[in-house]
Every structure is written in C-alpha cells, then in structure tokens.
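Students often ask why we bother encoding 3D structure as a string. The short answer is that it lets us treat folding as translation between two languages. Here is a chain of 175 residues written in the first language.
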Amino acid sequence: MKPTSSGLDGSRGALAAGAIALIAAATIGGAWFFQLVLGIQPCPLCLEQRYAYYLAIPLALVVALAARGGVARPLLAGGFGLLLLALLANVVLGGYHAGVEWGFWPGPTDCSGPIADLGSAGSLLERLDTVKVVRCDEVQWRFLGLSLAGYNVLISLLMAAFALWGLRAAVARRG
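And here it is in the second language, the structure alphabet:
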C-alpha cells in the first residue's frame, strides 16, 4: 500500500513528537541523575527550567499518538504550537540563567547576589546547619565550557526545531 500525503505527514508529525518526548525524558533523567546520584543540587532557576520538560513529555506523547491516529490538522498544529512556545520560553529562561552564571546580568535575589539578612548571631550557626542555599550565579558543573543551563538552551533549541518540523507537517497535512 502506497502511503498517502496525509499518512506521510502524520508519520513525520509522530516522529517529531516522539523525538521531543524521548529527548525531554532523557534530559530530565539526566537532571535527576545529576541531582540524586551525583549530588549536584539544582538552584531555583534550574528547577523552573524543568517545567518545560514536565509539560513536553506527556504533551509530545499525546501529539505523537494523535498524529499517528489521523487527528484533525488544527489539533495537531495546536499541540505542536504549544510545544514550540514552551520550548522557546525554556530557551529564553536557560539563556537568562546562563547569563546569570557568566555574570552578564544579576539573577533573582533569592538565589544570587549578596546575602543580606543573616539574622541574629545566636541562631546563625543553627540555621547554617539546616539550610543549604543553592546559588543561581555559581556554576556547579561545566563540560566543554557550558554549564547545565547552557546545555538546556541547546537541548531546548533542538526540541523546538522538532516542534517546528512537526508543526509544518501538521499544517501541510491534507484531510
């Protein structure tokens, strides 16, 4: 049986969405490995960057199944559009975080800059034993000159490219 244009475009959409789900799951798995196995604790900005992955994994799986099942073009386009927006927002957030790490601009006051309120001297030692502040402006790990925030930018860009490819396939799909 010769594939129709609709089937071919649905396969491309399913492939694009499947790739996004796989890359996002591998990335989150890697983040959890760094945190739980290697003991590299995430800062508040790192945790915020994970939200896009938590959205992308289930949404991309649903979009992949929908593309395979021949769901209406507007629904597929909407799913890919939402993925694209979330991933591009994550590119911006990761770029902001990387800039904070490089000292290009100040980061959020709750995880970067000077520590302003140390409280009373009597409770300071007690609080230091119980609280671990993970700073957003200090890189905990680099590979080939990039921090995890920098790799997040690259990975999110890759997934955004797949989302754009899937969006184009959904828009070009007949039926």
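Translate back mentally: Residues 20 and 159 are 5 Å apart (CA to CA). Keep this in mind for the problem set.
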